[in-house]
Amino acid sequence: MNLEESSSDHEFRMEARDWLRTNRPAERLPSPDTERGFALNREWERTLFEAGWAAVSWPEEYGGRGLGLWEWMIFEEEYFAAGLGPRAAQNGLFLLAPSLFEFGTDAQKAQLLPRIAGVEDMWAQGWSEPEAGSDLAAVRVRADRDEAAGGWRVNGQKTWSTRAPFCNRLFALVRTDPESTRHRGLSYLLIDLDAPGVTVRPVQKLGNETGFGEIFFDDVFVPDSEVLGGVGNGWKVAMATTGSERGLILRSPGRFMAAAQNLVDLYASVDGPSSTLKRDVVDAWISAQAYRYNSMKTVTRIAEGGKVGAESSGNKVFWSEMDVHMHETALDLLGDGAEIDGKWWHGFITSMATPIFAGTNEIQRNIVAERVLGMPRS
Ligand SMILES: Cc1cc2nc3c(=O)[nH]c(=O)nc-3n(C[C@H](O)[C@H](O)[C@H](O)COP(=O)(O)OP(=O)(O)OC[C@H]3O[C@@H](n4cnc5c(N)ncnc54)[C@H](O)[C@@H]3O)c2cc1C
Question: Which one of the listed residues 245, 311, 339, 370 is annotated catalytic?
Answer without folding.
Answer: 245
